[in-house]
Amino acid sequence: MSLELRNVTKTYREPGGGRLPVLNVNHFQLAAGEQVVLVGSSGGGKTTLLNIIAGITAADGGEVLVGGTDLVKLPEAARDRFRAERIGYVFQTFNLLPAFTALENVLLGMSFGGKRADRARAIKLLERVGLGHRLHHQPSQMSVGEQQRTSVARALANVPRLLLADEPTANVDAANQQTILELLRDSCREHNVSLLLVTHAPEVANQFERVEKLADFNRPA
Amino acid sequence: MNLATIAWKSIRQRGLASSLTALSVALGVMLMVAVLVIFGILQNTFNQRSINYDLIVGAKGDPLQLVLSTVYHISPPIENLPYRYYVDWKKDKRIESAIPLAMGDVTEQGSFPIVGTIPEFFEIDYAPGREFLFTKDSAEMRRPFEAYIGSRVAIENGWGVGAKLKLVHGGADSGHVHNEEFTVVGLLAPTGTPHDKTVYVNLEGFYQIEGHDKPLGEGIKREREFYGEPPLSPEELAAEVKKIEAKYGTHDHAGHDHAGHNHIHELPMVQKQITAILLRCKGLTVGPLIAGELKKGYQAQAVNPIFPMQKLLDQFLRPAMELLMVLTVLIIVVSGIGIFVSIYNSMAARRREIAIMRALGAQRGTVFSIILAESIILCVGGGLLGLALGHGLVFVAAPIVESQTGLIVNPLAFEMQELLLLPALLLLATLVGILPGLTAYRTDVAESLSGS
After folding, report:
1. Where do the domains of chain A lie, and which CATH numbers do they carry?
2. Which of A3, B58, B72, B118 could disulfide-link to B276, CB 3.0 to 4.6 Å?
């Protein structure tokens, strides 16, 4: 699924009442099945951009075309549904629910996609990320690398067409970093899923054919 | 994974707080159920369905005591009436049936109340449309020393047809056991009324028991006194006694041993006494009329059994029950507030979890519903536990209440008002869950996710 951003702007309200411009993206494009790394300085708006693409945060203006659907024009409920059905999101801090086991976290990801949670598929996904033996463990009982692999499995639960990954390797050790990266890239390749990965780590960025610097196309006024 | 499962996970995560709040609801509901069931039992026991007579005639005194002693056997009888008074009522053309009852004694085994009556008592329905039924091996009560026993008496004493029983004079504390033995000839089928815990003996046999026949002179004096006739001089009394003795012969109980010796001797009416008379009247207006007539006189009182019991219920039991109900409702409401506080306090810590669910595609309405489901699970779950505990309490308390008060308590009793508990708890859960639910609904996803 392709992604295209046109004149996307976002400002935040400041305590004094003014507006702080965060994003002003003239144009950005990602082809279906393409894998792109987005790099940028801390506080540069990378997470905000991912949130806008995911429909979590509403843009102030412009067009966010995901597979031809403009998320800016969709009401919030429709954006939520769109995200649940077509977009996978891997967070830097994993964001697993602590009371749920690995399997339940993946099933939870499926629950909001409008389809019946497929237990067999959830188990397969966890086996695919090497956690077949950790199905019934809670996040607190898993290592950091295992937690991030669980969150990758969860992001893939609803067969997304676009996968967003926000610093997915920032909190894991070097060995796990490569495993997770390969897992993400291989999974996306297998299912022709577009991948937009945000990182500040050069060793991660260097592995991608296309690396975009946010500052090159984001010029907040 | 459905909303209830997600809500249940969250409840389990806060196991201790959730259990305690649900338990507080359970305790409130338990008390409410116990109050409802016990009051229902009292109402059923004391309402008009439990007796099929228009009037109870007894000695002057407290009408409530007359009803409690005659129908429920949970109060001592007031005084006795002459047997002749019963005969008078039997002859009264306004009366359809008059049944004499003689009470005061209990069984030696189990202290069940003894009621002396006539076989006709069992031909009249004990409650409207509910006739006395007997076990198949039962026979008619024909001879004086024969008895029928209630179903609970049979079970608790292990008695069947052919069993022999003795009477303790004037209540269990007197210690005087009559020598005469009665034989059980019939077992009453369960009625759910005080009949189940009563032994009915043939009235003729009741009078044959030592001490149950008044001394002749005393009987003559009391009967004249009752009818307002002038007292006899000692000479006149002696002549009257002599006249009656000449007709019926003399019988001195002290002159021989009664043990194992059930003998019959015909008694003059003046030596017999009864405790109460049950009347069925011809026509609806007769009962109040007779009650009014007796009110003017000094001999006796006639009481419609419904009124004193209704008065007891309305003046004492209902207000007490209403007060208890208010208290239990307050307990449940306070428990509901406890659930609110528990969920609401957890919201700050759960903002991130809610944001994660929203980021995974859960809509605002979905997270609102999850919080509401938590409140409903805690309230309704606690309520169902309370229902079970309440009925468990009644089940455990039933034999104790029975032994203390003599009332029949059905341990499996269920009150229709209990059905209102579930919708009431659902309403409470909804009210309690709205505010935390709205907090979840309003959660800013990006802000909550970045706040790690």
Report:
1. 3-95+161-217 (3.40.50.300)
2. B58
